[in-house]
Amino acid sequence: MSQGNYDPRFPQPNPFAPQADGYGGYQGQQYPQQNYTGQNFPSQSYPPQRPKHAGSGLKTLLIILGVIGSLLGLMFVSCCGGLVYLAQPQKPSSAASQLFDLSLVPIPTLLTLPPPKKKFHVHPKPKTIGTRIVIDTFRKRSFAIPNPFQGEANFSAVSVGENSSTPGHSGKICVYLPLGEHAPRTLPAVLITVAGTNLLQGANFGPIEDISAGAEHLPYVQAGFAVVVYEMDGGAEVKSDEQLTVAYNQFKASCAGMVNARNAFEYILARIPQINPQQIYTAGHSSAGAAALLFAAHEPRVAGCVAYAPCADVAGFHPYGTILRMKPKFPGLIDFLHQSSPTTHAERIHCPVLLFSAEDDSVVDVQKTRDFAALLQKTNAQVTVYTVEEGDHYDAMIEEGIPAGIEWIKQRAGR
């Protein structure tokens, strides 16, 4: 066929139609219309699909990995944030900085003190007579008790009240008086509670025949003081978390034993005429030292406070991990630990204070006692700190602490 001749056997392409570019598209971006009737064009969908460019699969993979990475990062930040939150001690409410309102619990009808029924005698020579369990953050540790004291005392025990359903009304008190007759308002008194608790529950008396009790009480009696020892609600022996929860709730309802202390104080004023109401001192060792300090903050009529190796910072005494573990079972735990801590109320303790500690105390670090003393001294000029080199948590108190406390009280009582 010659150039320029038309042969119908060989159809010629339309020179004005868009030409395929070989990549599924058309030159000039002109797409064929559905009414186009030209021939010999490649079959195309409408609109035509372009093939994926090289590397687009890698981009998709990177996008997916980016999304996954973002999600993992978000989870990491959330988890770490949660851990940081848990690691930070939770702050108590503002109400926990206030003293317990003891007026919410009425004073019971105080029963009459019965005649003395028991005389204690303590061996005259130092002798290890048993062991005593002292506080150590749920880890019970035994300390041998040397007892260098001797003597006798009139002893009586009585329930404070009769209503067992009201906090502080069913606890007992024990009263030691020096032998002989005493005119009204002539005896200084030392108010003490039972030591050796975990600061989450109260304390009950052991058998009165337990001679170890005399080691902490009789020295004051031999020095011419009356001694009044009180129980704190929630002092039943516990062997499970459930029992501890019950004891905690009872202790909390009694305002960390302050209702018991208040009732014992009122009992002295109403039922023990031999005691001088102007010379009632509060004292205690370890957890009982914390109670003594806390009551001194609540009761302005206290003449002075002697605290031997006291757990002054109740909230800081328990490891925070332990607090987190206990919190679900102990309602209001964070606030209660703060409110029951003498450290919280240091500025409210205005009476003279003697703090005693041993340098080698393995339960309450001596530096914590010094720190608490410094806190007290900001608002109280009558704070004395007495430390000894050795004796650990208990022996130092028995051998040197109580004698020092007796002399300190004598100076203030004019005896």
Automatic annotation (TrEMBL):
One GO BP on record is: proteolysis
Report whether Hydrolase shows up as a keyword of the record.
yes
- Where in the sequence is the signal peptide annotated? none
Q: Which GO terms describe its molecular function?
A: carboxylic ester hydrolase activity; serine-type peptidase activity
Q: Note down the stretches annotated as region Disordered.
A: 1-52
Q: What are the protein's UniProt keywords?
A: Hydrolase, Membrane, Transmembrane, Transmembrane helix
Does the entry feature the keyword Transmembrane helix, yes or no?
A: yes
Supply the Pfam families for this chain.
Peptidase_S9
Q: Where are the transmembrane segments?
A: 60-87
**Peptidase S9 prolyl oligopeptidase catalytic domain: from which residue to which, for each copy?**
221-393
Per the record, the coiled-coil ranges are none
Which InterPro entries does this one have? AB_hydrolase_fold, FrsA_esterase, Peptidase_S9_cat
Give the domain of life: Bacteria
In which residue ranges is the amino acid composition biased (Low complexity)? 28-39
Q: What is this protein called?
A: Alpha/beta hydrolase family protein
